[in-house]
Specification:
4-stranded antiparallel β-sheet; binds 2-acetamido-2-deoxy-beta-D-glucopyranose; 7-stranded mixed β-sheet; Coagulation Factor XIII, Chain A, domain 1; AA9; mainly beta; polysaccharide degradation; 237 residues; binds copper (II) ion; 11 strands; 30% strand; single chain; globular
Length: 237
């Protein structure tokens, strides 16, 4: 007990996560290759901060020259790990299992995926997984060894995009700030899209508020019966 108790506490407080790499067509492009990764895995808690777009101070990210080509209509997989070099299995090497909440993904069309900061308007949501009455989206990613599947819509215009994959941990969210937002941005060149539909967009910061029922919530008591994922509805073709 003397050994276990402090370890359990450290685990709960610090077992954060990073979207470290992107898998496309079964090929993993490598840690930080086409994904702007921070060296520290801590969350963003201030929804009004510019760092809510693609992470950033207090967790500065490393630029990457790589732009990953992705076919519109295909599915990509964001890989979440506890730290950049984590190799082991879940939950320890993905995210602490206390970190329950939704998963989300957004796209933003940009002129240049390597240089656009991501801050501001242009974002549309392409995936969300909240609470199914028993388990949370983050639990499905943790139990799936950090694999977060995201379908790229077939009806969007071809071009360069930022892909913002997100895990929102609500274990301490009964007050704001308290919800822990984890996100990184991948740099994509999306090819083959039909461009037949134009998504309506939101801004980061701006899409979330500290008073959103999906951001300020006690998930432990009373038991959650229904949960509204924050942000706009998911764009569909
Ligand atoms: C994006 O910017 C980088 C750095 O300035 C440049 O090398 C690259 O050619 C640009 N890409 C596009 C698609 O404009
Ligand atoms: Cu954490």
């Amino acid at each position: 007990m003397k050994l276990l108790a402090p370890l359990a506490l450290v685990g709960a407080a610090s077992a954060h996560t990073i979207f470290v790499s992107l898998e496309v067509n079964g090929v993993n492009h490598g840690v930080g290759n086409g994904v702007r990764v921070p060296s520290y895995n801590g969350p963003i808690e201030d929804v009004t901060s510019n760092s809510i777009a693609c992470n950033g101070p207090p967790n500065p990210t490393t630029p990457t020259d790589k732009v990953i080509t992705v076919q519109a209509g295909s599915e990509v997989t964001a890989i979440w790990r506890y730290m950049l070099n984590s190799q082991g299995s879940a939950p320890n090497d993905v995210m602490d299992s206390s970190h329950k909440g939704p998963t989300m993904a957004y796209l933003k069309k940009v002129n240049n995926a390597t240089t656009d900061s991501g801050v501001g308007d242009g974002w549309f949501k392409i995936q969300e997984d909240g609470f199914d009455g028993t388990t949370w989206g983050t639990e499905r990613v943790i139990n799936g060894q950090g694999r977060h599947k995201i379908k790229i819509p077939e009806c969007i215009e071809p071009g360069q995009y930022l892909l913002r994959a997100e895990m929102l941990a609500l274990h301490g969210a009964s007050n704001y700030p308290g919800a822990q937002f984890y996100m990184e941005c991948a740099q994509l060149n999306i090819v083959g899209g039909t461009g037949t539909k134009k998504p309506s967009t939101v801004s980061f910061p701006g899409a979330y508020s500290g008073n959103d029922p999906g951001v300020k919530i006690n998930i432990w008591w009373p038991p959650v019966t229904s949960y509204k994922v924050p942000g706009p509805p998911v764009f569909t073709c």
